[in-house]
């Protein structure tokens, strides 16, 4: 079955079309079970954990592989430039990026996309995907997608049920019902089952006819709006108002904050899928994983002859079945079995693989203790590049700042700190109190407290500089932006 490409403008592909197919990527998770690599400031979907592409990029490329156009991505506003850049890196242009002012789970996010799309093409089929799942058998996706689109065009709420490979307690399950009349390969949903205990999971696996609930859906925009109206009207009322009062911010769509905050925090499963009379499921063997833990990554990754996964600067001896990753200093591991060891620049995780799901509890304890490492990386990404802390003491802080070619920081000033910039690679144009200064490699410039300043990389290579801050308060909120190319407050 041919699948119509979507036009990035949101209009129908051609007159009389029965509806376009639009990939929709939900990118709202923080992936705390993959801490310390995945954190709220830069969660797992933005990391290349299984291939040269990030999980977000792999998800977006699935749509391209199936002959579809640019996706709609729903994310929080802090990640908007990261997403735009990662899509650009894999050649995807024309994506619509919808910004959630607050996290409200999948039902409000999907409602927003459906309402926006329905304004111009209510028959469009939305292919809902999480940004952070992995599929190891992508070639099987196309035929299954065609079957699902056929059912969705008939008004079904279609989910993809993944063939279980083990009695996993971390997933919800779907009980497969009778074949859906008139659509090959699609079945009615008999029931949804919450995440089971180990005994129940083993029982369902032995019995057969149960599938993992992947959270991947297909439905028409007007169908899901009607079902939300029927089963979750409070979601639809709030989101409809947020969509009505949306604004454009550069290439981004901003939902109205006040209205969107009124939406309940609820998943599409609880809001609609478990109640609708039109639920259907496609049994799928796609090698799917939600990449929800370090143990899952160990299972998905290539291993050496001892069953170990070693990524980065890692040396192993007399160890078996371990997952060891270092994004920082050398990690030497000897005489251990079944461990997860993850090293970043500012944190180290050591866990038995059987307790990989408990990492989330460790993160909760870090948050309760007020540790910034729970949510923030040492490296912080910005629209112009990134910065990372090198050292910090009483009344001083040292950072490395990298500015991409052609990018510039906001025109700004500080009330509590002075700064000294030393260029170590590239060339900078620094505006200080209205005067421009060219600062070359191995040269420096001083920015006294209160000076209005801006940094531009005019070159073709990244600009790297060392920033030394001094003053009584060094927090990131001591920035008064006067002008900003990226519409940040």
TL;DR?
The protein is built from eleven helices and 28 strands.
Highlighted features:
single chain; 6-stranded antiparallel beta sheet; 489 residues; 5-stranded mixed β-barrel; alpha+beta; Spore Coat Polysaccharide Biosynthesis Protein SpsA, Chain A; Jelly Rolls; 3 domains; globular
Note the gap between the termini: 47 Å
Principal-axes geometry comes out as globular
CA gyration radius, whole angstroms: 25 Å
The major beta sheet can be summarized as:
6 strands, antiparallel
Quaternary structure: single chain
What does this structure look like?
With 489 residues, this protein is an alpha+beta fold. The chain folds into 3 domains: 21-289, Spore Coat Polysaccharide Biosynthesis Protein SpsA, Chain A (Alpha-Beta Complex); 294-368, no CATH class; 379-483, Jelly Rolls, CATH 2.60.120. Helix content is 22%, strand content 33%. The protein has 11 helices and 28 strands. Strand 7 and strand 8 form a beta hairpin. Helix 3 (106-118) packs across helix 6 (221-231) and helix 3 (106-118) packs across helix 7 (233-244). It is globular. Residues 4-18 have low confidence and may be disordered.
What does the secondary structure layout of this molecule look like, with pairings?
Layout: E1 21-27, H1 55-65, E2 72-76, H2 80-89, E3 96-100, H3 106-118, E4 125-130, E5 134-135, H4 141-153, E6 157-162, E7 173-179, E8 187-193, H5 198-207, E9 210-220, H6 221-231, H7 233-244, E10 247-249, E11 252-254, H8 257-260, H9 268-273, E12 279-284, E13 288-289, H10 294-300, E14 309-317, E15 323-334, E16 339-343, E17 348-352, H11 359-368, E18 379-382, E19 385-393, E20 396-403, E21 411-413, E22 418-425, E23 428-432, E24 435-439, E25 444-447, E26 453-456, E27 463-470, E28 480-483
Parallel strand pairs: 1-2, 1-4, 2-3, 3-11, 6-12, 14-15, 15-16
Antiparallel strand pairs: 4-9, 5-13, 6-9, 7-8, 7-9, 8-12, 10-11, 16-17, 18-19, 19-20, 20-27, 21-28, 22-25, 22-27, 23-24, 23-26
Helix pairs in contact: 3-6, 3-7, 6-7
């Amino acid at each position: 079955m041919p699948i119509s490409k979507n036009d990035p403008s949101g209009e129908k592909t051609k007159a009389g079309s029965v509806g376009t197919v639009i990939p929709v990527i939900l990118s709202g998770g923080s992936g705390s079970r993959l801490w310390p690599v995945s954190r709220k400031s830069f969660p797992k979907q933005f990391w290349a954990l299984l291939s040269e592409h990030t999980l977000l990029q792999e998800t977006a490329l699935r749509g391209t592989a199936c002959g579809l156009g640019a996706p709609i991505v729903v994310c929080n506003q802090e990640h908007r430039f990261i997403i735009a850049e990662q899509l650009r890196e894999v050649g995807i242009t024309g994506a619509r990026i919808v910004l959630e002012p607050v996290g409200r789970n999948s039902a409000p996010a999907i409602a927003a996309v459906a309402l926006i799309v329905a304004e111009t093409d209510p028959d469009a089929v939305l292919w809902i995907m999480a940004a952070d799942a992995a599929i190891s058998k992508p070639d099987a996706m196309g035929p299954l997608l065609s079957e699902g689109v056929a059912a969705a065009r008939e008004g079904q709420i279609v989910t993809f049920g993944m063939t279980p490979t083990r009695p996993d307690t971390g997933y919800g399950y779907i009980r497969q019902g009778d074949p859906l009349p008139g659509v090959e390969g699609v079945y009615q949903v008999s029931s949804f089952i919450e995440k089971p205990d180990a005994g129940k999971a083993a029982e369902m696996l032995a019995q057969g006819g149960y599938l993992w609930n992947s959270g991947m859906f297909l439905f028409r925009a007007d169908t899901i709006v009607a079902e939300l109206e029927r089963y979750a009207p409070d979601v639809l009322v709030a989101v409809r108002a947020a969509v009505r009062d949306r604004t454009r911010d550069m290439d981004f769509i901003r939902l109205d904050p006040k209205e969107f905050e009124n939406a309940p925090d609820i998943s599409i499963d609880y809001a609609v899928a478990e109640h609708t009379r039109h639920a259907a499921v496609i049994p799928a063997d796609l090698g799917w994983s939600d990449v929800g833990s370090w143990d899952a990554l160990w299972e998905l990754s290539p291993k050496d002859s001892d069953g170990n996964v070693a990524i980065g600067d890692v040396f192993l001896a007399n160890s078996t079945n371990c997952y060891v990753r270092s994004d920082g200093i050398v990690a030497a591991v000897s005489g251990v079995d079944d461990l997860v060891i993850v090293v970043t620049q500012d944190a180290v995780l050591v866990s038995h693989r059987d307790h990989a799901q408990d990492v989330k509890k460790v993160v909760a304890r870090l948050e309760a203790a007020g540790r910034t490492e729970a949510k923030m990386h040492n490296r912080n990404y910005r629209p112009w590049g990134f910065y990372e802390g090198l050292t910090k003491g009483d009344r001083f802080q040292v950072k490395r700042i990298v500015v991409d070619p052609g990018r510039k920081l906001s025109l700004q000033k500080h009330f509590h700190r002075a700064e000294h910039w030393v260029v170590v690679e590239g060339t900078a144009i620094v505006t200080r109190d209205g005067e421009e200064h060219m600062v070359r490699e191995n040269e420096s410039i001083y920015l006294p407290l209160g000076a209005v300043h801006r940094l531009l990389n005019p070159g073709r290579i990244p600009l790297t500089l060392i920033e030394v801050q001094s003053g009584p308060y060094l927090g990131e909120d001591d920035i008064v932006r006067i002008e900003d190319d990226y519409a940040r407050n």
